[in-house]
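Q: Predict the bound structure with iron/sulfur cluster.
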Amino acid sequence: MNGEKYQVEIIDAGYCRRMIACQDACPVHTDARGYVNAIADGNYDDGYLMARDPNPFASVCGRVCNAPCEAVCRRGNIDSPISIRALKRFLCERYGVEAEEHIRIAEVPAEGWSARLLVRHAPGNSRTSESVNTLLRASEKRMPAIKRAKVAVVGAGPAGLSAAHDLAVQGYKVTIFEAAPSPGGMLFLGIPEYRLLRDLIRREIGDILKLGAELRVNARLGGGFTLRTLREEGYEAIFIATGAYVDQRLGIDGEQLQGVIYALDFLRRANLEEGVEVGNRVVVIGGGGTAIDAARTMLRVGEALVEKDGTATIDAARGALRLGARKVHVLYRGTRQEMRAPEEEVEDAVSEGVLLHTGLAPGRILGDGGKVTGIETIRIQSAIDEEGRRVRVVVPGSEQVFQADTVIVGVGQESDLSFILEQDGIRLTPEGTIAVDPETLAASAPGIFAGGDVAFGPRIIIEAVRDGHTAARSIDRYLQKGEVSIVRRATFREVAPQELPPEGWLDKPRRRPPLYPIDERTGLSEVELAYDEATAVDQASRCLKCHIQTVFNGSLCILCGGCVDICPWSCLKMVNLDKIVGDQQLEAVIQARYGMSLQDMPRGEQSLTPGTAMIKDESRCTRCGLCAKRCPVGVITMEAFSFEEEMVYEEAEVA
Ligand SMILES: Cc1cc2nc3c(=O)[nH]c(=O)nc-3n(C[C@H](O)[C@H](O)[C@H](O)COP(=O)(O)OP(=O)(O)OC[C@H]3O[C@@H](n4cnc5c(N)ncnc54)[C@H](O)[C@@H]3O)c2cc1C
Ligand code: SF4
Ligand code: SF4
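A: Predicted complex:
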C-alpha cells in the first residue's frame, strides 16, 4: 500500500524474472529454482548443469556460499527459506569436481587453442549472459576472426580465476600472476579446511586451468614486476583482482604487545601450516565471519608448536577439537543479531565451545614484560539520540578484564595497493579500493580493469565470481573494439496440474544438513555434511516454484470473486481503479483500455470507476493453483515462465 492506494505493477518479463527471487538475487543469476526443482524430480544431472553453467566455483559455493538467494527466497515469507546452498552441494557431490562421475562442461581440445562445449545443454532458465553455454556459443561463431591478445590477471582468487576461465573460453592467451605459493585467494588462505576441503579447491581450480590459462605462483605484482613492465611484455589488458587481505588495526593501547595476532594473518598461517605461537587463553575481537573462523580454528590448533623440517608449525590440520582445554572468547560490540557472521556459523562456534560475549568493546590490551596478559573491555548499549536515531553508547564504569595470553583482532580488512604507482594513472577511492566503472569494471587507466574485493572491499565469493565474468566481457569488448548486445527471449507455457507444488509441501520444515559429531571433529574433518538423497528430495520439494505465474485474462472475468475467496493466503483482491497507482506502463494500459488517466478516475464512495482491477500480493502466493481451479470461466491459468539470453557480437576487427 502507498498511503490509501495499492502500488501496482503490470506483469512483464522483467517482473516474472524478479518473482524468481532466488535466481534474481544470485550475482551470477544461477537458476537455483531450476536445480531445486530438478532435485525434487530426481533429475540430478540437469540440476548440476544448472548450478555449474554460470559458476566455475559451483562446488566451492555448494559448501560455503553466503547464499544471497536464501535471504530473499519467497518460502521465507511462509516459514523458512529453501536450503538452496546445501542442495547445490548435494548435486555437486554427484557430478561436481569432487565426484567420480564429474561432468565437465567445456574443454580445450589437444590440437586447438579455443575451448569447446562438452555439454551443449543449458537446461531450465540457466542460459543467462553469465552462462558458459551462452558465452561459448557466441564465441564459437567469431573464433576465426578473434584477435588472440595476451591478457594478464593479477591475483588467483575467485575473481581472477573466474575472469581467466571466461577469457580462456573466448580464446585469449591468459597468464595469472599470484603472489602466494598456491592459487585460490581467500578460499585457500582465509576459509578454514573444516568448512572447505583443500582438495576440492584444487580440483575446481584445476578444471579452470585446463581451459588454457597459465598460472604463475609466487609472482607478486610490485615485487619484481609492475603494471608498466606487464604492458611492455605485451599484455594488452590487465585485470587486477588482488583482494583485501590486510587486517585493519584496532588503534587501542597495547596493540603492539607480543601475543596480539591479526585474524587474517593467523588464518593464512594456519592454512599454510606456518608457525604461530598461541596460548591457552584466547580472546578474539570482532563479529564477522573472519573472527568466527579464527575462533573456531583456535579450538582446533594443536596444543604445542610442532617441529616440522626444523620450523615451528601449528598443527592445524591434525589438531583435535580441544573442548575445554583452550578457552576461546569472542567479544563483539553489537548484538548477536547484528553480527555479520552467518548465524549458522555462530551457532556452530558456540556449540563447539566458543564463549560469545556481545555488547562489549575493547578498551585496551593489558600486558606485562611486553607480553599480553589480558584485555579490558567496556560495555556498549544502544540508546536513542536527540534526533530519534538508534546509537551505541558506552556504559560508564562497566570496565571488565578478560585474562588472555593471545588476542586475535578480526575487525575488518583492506587492500594493499602499494603496487600502484603514480605513473600508472589509476585512481583510488577514499575507502582505499581501486575506483572502477561499476558496469564495466574499467579502472581510470586504459586497458586496466579491477574487480572483487580490491575494487569493492570485502564481500563474498559469488560476487567476486560475478566480477570475473564482467571483467572478461569488458576486456573482450575493449580488445576487439566491437560491441555486444544481449538479446532476451521469454516464453510462457501452461503447466499441467502435476507440475504445481506437490501435496504437503507447506508442512515440510527446513532441515539443516547433518553435522559431524562435535567430539569427533578435527582440523581436517568437515563440520557440515551433505544431505542424503531422501532428505535432499524432501527439502527440494518445499520450493514454491516461483517461475509459475497466475496469468489473468481480464476480458473473460465475470467478477464473481471466487478466486479471492478461495486463496488461502488472501493474495487476491478486486479493487476500484481509483485505488491503484503505478508506473508509466500501468498508465499506458489504463489509457489504452479506458481512454483516461488513473488520475482522472471518478473518486469517492458514490462514484463508479469504469473498471475493476484484479490485484495480487505476490509475497505469499504459494502457487497452489486453487484460484485457477476455482474460476468458473477459466480466467486464470497457471503458466511457467522461461527465458534465455543470447550474446550477439558486432563483427570483431581482424588483427
Ligand atoms: C576468513 C574468511 C572467510 C570467508 N568466508 C566466506 C564464506 O564462507 N563465503 C563467502 O562467500 N565468502 C567468504 N569470504 C569472502 C571471500 O573469500 C572473498 O570475498 C573472496 O575470496 C574475494 O575474492 P577476490 O578474488 O576478490 O580476492 P581474494 O580471494 O582475496 O584473492 C586475491 C588473490 O590475489 C593475490 N594477491 C594479492 N596481492 C597480490 C599481488 N600484488 N600480486 C599478485 N597476487 C596478489 C592474493 O594472494 C590472493 O590469492 C571469506 C573471507 C575470509 C577472509
Ligand atoms: S521458493 Fe523456490 S523458486 Fe521461490 S525463491 Fe525459494 S527456491 Fe526460489
Ligand atoms: S496460486 Fe494459490 S496462493 Fe497463489 S493466488 Fe492463487 S490461490 Fe492464492
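A: The radius of gyration is 28 Å.
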